[in-house]
Write a structure and sequence with these properties.
Elements lengths: L6 E4 L5 H12 L3 E5 L4 H15 L3 E4 L6 H15 L4 E4 L14 H29 L2 E6 L12 H20 L5 E8 L5 H14 L3 H9 L11 H11 L11 E4 L7
Parallel strand pairs: 1-2, 1-4, 2-3, 4-5, 5-6, 6-7
Helix pairs in contact: 1-2, 1-8, 3-4, 4-5, 6-7
Length: 261
């Protein structure tokens, strides 16, 4: 399978699952725009590595996923610089763990903006470009929490359920334009996002670090193993292929059996 001559935008891709998406697409020949916050030198190192290792063009956008105008400008920049936007992966996401009655309103607003609304704004900008060229792939990182809830994650669960609904709606709207729209729902993947929520979960539930990992995180996954970022990325690459042309509006689980019940 080759994605040579395809151009991709991956939000939230300076680390974790997003960076794995970007590298997997580049490995198949796609030019890639990465996006996200972090140490400038570290981001530049990853961008340069994509170019040198895979022989593609790698560019970076610092667009803030809470700012609709910056998201639109990011898509426009990718289109202008790379020549098209063939693949959009909505991956930007944050987490906050708290009981509803204690949940800071500003954290609720931020999670909804980054985890859900940013995908809408990116789709709004990218879909006209994909329609004009007659081909596109849109993939959003949902979560097992798009299918099942956990306590103390009200904003995250709400955003991910919403993302699954947005995926279905968009898929129906563009179904005759050779554009597919799907979401991938990983279980717990060992990433900085998961690692960073362990202290909050320890506090919220009164558990030790090992108890959070084994009795909360991996308790949900029958395989008792974390999902690997590379496994999620491999599924995304398949969804970008011609073989996946009739997969659209789907919410594909990769969660070690978490949502099988």
């Amino acid at each position: 399978m080759s994605l040579k001559s395809r151009n991709a935008v991956v939000t939230g891709s300076t680390s974790g699952i997003g960076l794995s998406y970007a590298r997997a697409l580049a490995a198949e020949g796609a030019n890639v725009m990465i996006n996200g916050f972090g140490d400038a030198a570290a981001i530049e190192k990853e961008r340069a590595a994509i170019e040198s290792e895979f022989g593609v063009t790698g560019i970076y956008s610092a667009a803030d996923m809470t700012k609709p105008d910056q998201i639109a400008a990011m898509i426009a920049q990718a289109h202008t610089t790379l020549g098209s936007v063939d693949i959009l992966i909505n991956n930007a996401g944050i987490q906050y763990v708290s009981a509803i009655e204690d949940f800071p309103v500003e954290k609720w607003d931020q999670i909804i903006a980054i985890n859900l609304s940013s995908a809408f704004h990116a789709m709004k900008a990218a879909i006209p470009l994909m329609k004009a060229q007659g081909w596109g792939r849109i993939i959003s990182t949902a979560s097992a929490h798009s299918k099942a809830a956990s306590p103390f994650k009200s904003a995250y669960v709400t955003a991910k359920h919403g993302l699954a609904g947005l995926t279905k709606t968009a898929a129906l709207e563009v179904a005759t334009h050779k554009i597919t729209v799907n979401c991938i729902s990983p279980g717990y993947v060992w990433t900085p996002l998961v690692e960073s929520q362990i202290p909050d979960t320890m506090k919220a539930r009164g558990l030790t670090r090992d108890q959070v990992i084994n009795d909360v995180l991996l308790d949900a996954q029958p395989t008792k193993e974390f999902v690997k970022p590379e496994e999620v990325a491999a599924l995304a690459v398949f969804l970008c292929s011609d073989a996946a042309a009739q997969i659209t509006g789907a919410n594909l689980s990769i969660d070690g059996g978490w949502t099988a019940e």
